[in-house]
Request: fold
Amino acid sequence: MSTIFRSEEMTLCQLFLQPEAAYSCISELGELGIVQFRDLNPNVNAFQRKFVNEVRRCEEMGRKLRFLETEIKKDSLPIYDPEDNPEAPKPREMIDLEATFEKLDHELKEINTNADALKRNFSELTELKHNLSMTQLFFNDARPSDQDIMPTREMEIVTSGQPLKLGFITGVIPRERMLAFERMLWRVCRGNVFLKQAEIPEQVEDPITNEKVYKTVFVIFFQGEQLKNRVQKICEGFRANIYPCPENPQERRELAMGVMTRLEDLSVVLHQTQEHRQRVLAATSRNLRTWQIKVRKIKAIYHTMNMFNNDVARKCLIAECWAPVTELDRIQLALRKGT
Amino acid sequence: MKDDLFFNIDHGYLEGLCRGFKSGILKAPDYHNLVQCETLEDLRLHLHSTDYGSFLANEASPLTVNVIDDRLRDKLVQEFQHLRNASYEPLSTFLDYITYAYMIDNIVLLITGTLHQRAIGDLLPRCHPLGTFEQLGAITIADTPAQLYSAVLVDTPLAPYFIDCISEHDLDEMNVEIIRSTLYKAYLDDFFKFCKDLGGVTADVMCEILAFEADRRAFMITINSFDTGLTQDERAKLYPTCGHLHPDGLAELRRADSYEAVKEEYKLLFEGAGSSTGDKTIEDKFFEHEVKLNMNAFLRQFHFGIFYAYLKLKEQENRNIIWIAECIAQRHRSRIDNYIPIFP
Reply:
């Protein structure tokens, strides 16, 4: 009769569980998935329940697993899905799992910090390399006009005969900030500085944010200490990375050579670090899903156990649940399996 | 009439979203539970069951109050930016006006930091995300307000407010506060005028809230300036004119020289506000009144005031949570109940 209404006859049961056996019984019932427990402690706060520490430990483990997952996704490694359904591990195994996660977490964090330092160094050197090559072009353009007494549009040299000594600052700034930067420079220095810029064709990884962005190399020529200070402050304010550039073309070439060799060395080390990281992550990715399922099952079991009433007098846990009448045998079987 | 019929076409989604956010604001039982927490971990666990959800889920285990503060602010900024990104005119201008207040705060923060010789790299992360603009980092180059205006602020929306502040004096501690008050006065008057021009329910609701804000600023400026070298006339220039006190009350405030003389207007608020530690301070009373006005904004429909009110209520809630978190972290629970309740 009940099948016409697409509903089942349900019964409210009370379970008396030994505290030691409670965990495995709930695990078995959870695998069946046919009972719904009632919350016997509705007035108790979340953080005053009996198994709150275990739930916290599960959340901590979940956090570490999420961190590992983001790291694996960053490297676009495949995560293997387990074919079978892992069972919830025993409470003793929880400690082992925690230790494993802690170790992996620690190791990965270490690799990450090392890799970050190396990458930052690498990006700085790349920017410096672009900087040097671009400024080479600027100075080449300016070179012929050095000897002329005719003022050219390149460098505003006064025609009093002696070319004035202009100081300069070179640096790299993200492309989107270039316009505001130029305008600010013009306003503050009242048009007394000369700016030349060239865009870096490929994307460069920013040393600070580790994102690939388009950048522009700029060189600013100015005269005098005051203007120099102002230009420096503006560069700091717009977070442009300033790189020292020697005036002498020979020194520039030497510096460029030095930078190239350092870049090569760094890329080798960086490559090795990346390989190590890949190995660790690959080993993790094989077990990640299994671990996640296990942690969720543990957390679910402890959440359910939080809903039970702890009867101190008879030293057992009392649980109330709704169950379909027709499934009562299966439930009894599961409970027997659990104890 | 026009409000009711045509408001939902452009702004209906956002109003619905905002009211949804507002219903997630913590209520009295939540605060009751929070006050009973023993550690910050308990706090995190309880907030997990509210609208905040897992916003602290990825933070490593020893939580600090600073981390909670940052995450709370990030969540609010994210919500506000979603509202701003999805808005049409004139709501988008309205929301921009709200951000100008944060810009003023950021500018003052940077100038004060520079005066104390702090590096720009330390100061920029401490700026409020809602008040950032492109030229923010370049504020440190200015030595005088005139330079600040001509170099940095002239391209920003704050340019018209700065006209009154331009002077050739050097930027020092005292001046920075005066600049802040002058900027804020110009901003408040401008915002008030904008709301009045919008008309309709928005004007009703917002003008009430902004008038209270103006009066509160006038009071705080007066009370805070008692021991400093600020003359009465200089003080009078800093009072916003869009409040209920204008012009007679402001004239009296100008002449006021002591705390008692200030109590004339707004008598009800001052009653019960003593300066001893047991009573609530006058600032707390102002906060309570502000919360009341903001809650009233939600009782009317089809206006922009709810966005402003939501932002302010959320900020008050964040202040409450941080207050409770500090009391827990420092184990000084005697005044843990001194938060401002939002839902009575």
Chain B touches chain A at residues 33, 36-38, 41-42, 45-46, 48-49, 57-58, 60-61, 120-121, 124, 134-141, 147, 150-152, 154-155 (CB under 8 Å). Chain B is about 60% helix and 0% strand. The mean pLDDT of chain B is 83.
